[in-house]
């Protein structure tokens, strides 16, 4: 069930009209600035336009309980199936990013997950660390997490920011270095597996819950990861089915060609069956994954993936969370069915450090 399915048809029309009015106002404001001899960026000019959605629309709004903020697209890995590719090097200024996070908190956000790209690349991880501190100390969010390939993380980052981080998820698709090379999850001669174990130990030392994310594809579909996962003992092992997104890892304008990585639903289920004894396994098929995540891009726009591509909303910095989220395509029912809300604060996990 998507957002529009719970909104009456007349309200849907009002939302569409509001969306069109916003676009018209944005274009008119920009043209006016041009003809006046003054040009202002669209974000600044749009903020002067007072276009609001009827209150009858927002009463059924979706709450941004858990948000994934991809604040950068830059990455030092070249994973062939990546579905959030490095199309731009843009990153919001820190103050603007904090303003957006505060808007999300005011609208009901409980968990923020920072991702990329590779989030530790920008400003050597300090930008990310400052956002983590802000979300935990200032906004007092119950859960702050990160997804990273792990290659850029240093121990001094844990020393400075680890106290405010609840969960660190490291992406690892194989425990065979040759397979990681084929996938593109590697950098030079560094061992991705050795680094994974090092970060696991740091998480234990600095009291950060450790998680592993794996994308199952044609190169690792026959691998048995049971012993390695049990040894690392993550709080969650999130297992994704390789997903195609037009314009990202599929299609004419894509930077990746992930078709050769795609596996069938049956193949994915066979992999899950092989690992059914792993207690921390959390499987996510394409059906569950596509519409059940609230994704913010580097401009703080929600990304709607319902049509197999990423269609951006307006930025929450321009129109606020309530209006932008209506165009996110978020399926809150599927979010809950896939176990999107769980014990995500390390204070509540009762882990033995």
Automatic annotation (TrEMBL):
| One of the GO biological process terms | positive regulation of immune response
Q: Does the keyword Endoplasmic reticulum apply?
A: yes
Gene3D superfamilies reported for this sequence? Aldolase class I
Query: Which molecular function GO terms apply here?
Result: 4 iron, 4 sulfur cluster binding; catalytic activity; metal ion binding
Topology class, membrane = Peripheral membrane protein
Q: Principal localization?
A: endoplasmic reticulum
Protein's UniProt keywords contain Zinc: no
| Cofactor(s) the protein needs | [4Fe-4S] cluster
* InterPro entries registered for this protein in UniProt: Aldolase_TIM, Elp3/MiaA/NifB-like_rSAM, RSAD2, RSAD2/Viperin_antiviral, rSAM, rSAM_sf
Q: Where is the Radical SAM core domain?
A: 61-281
Annotated NCBIfam families: viperin, viperin_w_prok
Q: Which family does it belong to?
A: Belongs to the radical SAM superfamily. RSAD2 family.
* Protein name, UniProt field: S-adenosylmethionine-dependent nucleotide dehydratase RSAD2
């Amino acid at each position: 069930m998507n957002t529009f399915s719970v909104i009456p048809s007349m309200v849907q029309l009002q939302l569409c009209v509001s969306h069109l009015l916003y676009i018209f106002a944005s274009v008119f404001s920009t043209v006016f600035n041009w003809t006046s001899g003054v040009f202002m960026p669209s974000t600044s000019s749009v903020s002067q336009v007072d276009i609001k959605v009827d209150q009858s629309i927002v009463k059924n709004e979706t709450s941004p309980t858990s948000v994934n903020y991809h604040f950068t697209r830059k990455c030092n890995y070249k994973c062939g199936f990546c579905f959030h590719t490095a199309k731009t090097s843009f990153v919001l200024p820190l103050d603007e990013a904090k303003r957006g996070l505060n808007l999300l908190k005011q609208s009901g956000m409980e968990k923020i997950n920072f991702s990329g790209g590779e989030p530790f690349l920008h400003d050597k991880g300090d930008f990310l660390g400052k956002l983590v501190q802000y979300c935990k100390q200032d906004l007092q969010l119950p859960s702050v997490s990160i997804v990273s390939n792990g290659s850029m993380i240093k121990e001094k980052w844990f020393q400075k920011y680890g106290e405010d981080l609840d969960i660190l998820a490291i992406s690892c698709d194989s425990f065979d270095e040759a397979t990681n090379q084929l996938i593109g999850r590697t950098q030079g001669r560094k061992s991705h597996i050795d680094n994974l174990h090092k970060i696991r130990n740091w998480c234990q030392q600095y009291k950060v819950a450790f998680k592993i994310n794996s994308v199952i594809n044609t190169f690792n579909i026959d691998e048995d990861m049971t012993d390695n996962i049990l040894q690392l003992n993550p709080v969650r092992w999130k297992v994704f089915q390789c997903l195609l997104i037009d314009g990202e890892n599929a299609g004419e304008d894509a930077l990746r060609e992930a078709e050769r990585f795609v596996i069938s639903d049956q193949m994915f289920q066979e992999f899950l069956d092989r690992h059914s004894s792993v207690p921390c396994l959390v499987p996510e098929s394409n059906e569950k994954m596509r519409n059940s995540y609230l994704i913010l891009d580097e401009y703080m726009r929600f990304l709607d993936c319902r049509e197999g591509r990423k269609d951006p909303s307006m930025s929450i910095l321009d129109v606020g969370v309530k209006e932008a989220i209506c165009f996110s395509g978020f399926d809150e029912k599927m979010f809950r069915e896939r176990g999107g809300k769980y014990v995500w604060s390390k204070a509540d996990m009762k882990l033995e450090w």
